[in-house]
């Protein structure tokens, strides 16, 4: 299948790059970080005092990018278990509400159905957080670009979705949305429209959800918003 081939190709490119650079870069980064902290603690130098937080922040950002790459090549051990999807989604929403209020975005949860799914709880949480973060960032982009003026709202909906025997977690935002061209590029390695983006969040999410036997779908309209939907096979209730 063409789609599958392209997907695997995308992975191997990133995989090779990541494997080659990650270890080589991480160690010196850790050393530099330690040295900056050490110098900052001892010094009277105003410039060093002033700029070291910025240096540390940039180093941490670099480290995060590398960590994201590593997640792609060497995903942490998966433990698939039967989990109560509604509980996992509720826990995740509680986790992200503060991020929402910090960005003036309301986070709302609607549960129309209850499901048990076979999944890795931590990774499922990570996927939902990635998509909600994208929703929040799309709302900020929409305001900056003046294409969307409404109050920021991200709704998380748990229902049967549009596919039989699947559980759907839809993350609906009223942010800037995407044009058709943009939707096509989503999930490509390094594709980002953000100055501080990595262009890896959706790719990692796609991969984790696929490993759980599910898939991620997008619907979007420029100037209106986006629906990112995680579909997972529902475990039949006894
Ligand atoms: P990053 O968030 O670091 O840019 P992602 O892989 O998470 O990387 O997303 C890639 C790109 O896809 C984003 O930069 C943005 O252009 C687009 N995108 C993802 N989610 C949304 C969304 N909810 N609304 C609009 N655009 C989105
Ligand atoms: Mg992202």
UniProtKB/TrEMBL annotation:
- What sort of enzyme, by top EC class, is this? transferase
Q: What is its EC number?
A: 2.7.13.3
Sorted keywords for this record are: ATP-binding, Cell membrane, Kinase, Membrane, Nucleotide-binding, Phosphoprotein, Transferase, Transmembrane, Transmembrane helix, Two-component regulatory system
BP term (GO), one: cell wall organization
The residue ranges of the Histidine kinase domain are 20-236
What is the annotated localization of this protein? Answer: Cell membrane
User: Per the record, what is one GO cellular component?
Assistant: plasma membrane
Q: Topology relative to the membrane, per the entry?
A: Multi-pass membrane protein
Q: What is its main location?
A: membrane
Reactions catalysed, as given in the entry: ATP + protein L-histidine = ADP + protein N-phospho-L-histidine
| Record-level Gene Ontology MF annotations | ATP binding; phosphorelay sensor kinase activity
Tell me which domain of life the UniProt entry assigns to the organism this sequence originates from.
Answer: Bacteria
Question: What name does UniProt use for this protein?
Answer: histidine kinase
- Source organism of this protein record: Exobacillus caeni
Span within the entire protein? 188 to 425 of 425
């Amino acid at each position: 299948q063409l789609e599958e081939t392209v997907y695997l190709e995308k992975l191997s490119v990133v995989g090779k790059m990541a494997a080659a650079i990650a270890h080589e870069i991480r160690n010196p980064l850790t050393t530099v970080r330690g040295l900056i902290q050490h110098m900052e603690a001892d010094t009277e130098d105003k410039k060093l005092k002033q700029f070291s937080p910025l240096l540390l922040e940039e180093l941490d950002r670099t480290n995060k990018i590398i960590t994201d790459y590593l997640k792609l090549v060497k995903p942490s051990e998966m433990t698939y278990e039967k989990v109560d999807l509604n509980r996992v989604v509720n826990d995740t929403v509680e986790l992200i509400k503060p991020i929402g209020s910090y960005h003036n975005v309301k986070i709302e949860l609607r549960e129309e159905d209850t499901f048990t799914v076979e999944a890795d709880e931590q990774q499922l949480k990570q996927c939902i957080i990635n998509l909600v973060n994208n929703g929040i960032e799309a709302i900020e982009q929409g305001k900056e670009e003046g294409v969307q003026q409404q109050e920021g709202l991200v709704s998380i909906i748990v229902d049967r979705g549009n596919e039989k025997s699947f559980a759907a977690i839809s993350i609906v935002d009223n942010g800037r949305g995407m044009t058709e061209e943009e939707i096509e590029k989503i999930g490509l390695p390094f594709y980002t429209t953000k100055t501080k983006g990595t262009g890896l969040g959706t790719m990692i999410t796609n991969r984790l959800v696929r490993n759980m036997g599910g898939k991620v779908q997008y619907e979007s309209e420029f100037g209106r918003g986006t629906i990112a939907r995680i579909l997972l096979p529902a475990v039949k209730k006894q």
